[in-house]
Fold this protein.
Amino acid sequence: MAFLPCPYLHGRVELTDEQEQHIAEQHPDLLPDNRQCVIDTLADPDQVCRSVRLANARLFSRWFPALRGGKHVVVVVVSESGPQERHWIVTSYIARKLSKGVLEWKRS
């Protein structure tokens, strides 16, 4: 398991071995070769949207001009509030354009 820094959430985001394997199997163009893009997206996103599918999920996205001719990396993070607040990655993928979500924050 890895814990990735996420200043936007004021904490760390878990990337379990199982989820990392899921991403590597479903999105081999992202992991393992572009793992740093996932880390950079959480650390310094271009925008953060609320998921329209999962009420407690956010989509962090960042544009990488050198990634496959210019692509977005999207990292989907689920948050659980309470006494032991927890954030974890459910998936991550490369996208040509961003899907719709409720914009929560955007780099100005």
Notes: The chain has a mean pLDDT of 96. The first strand starts at residue 2 and ends at 6.
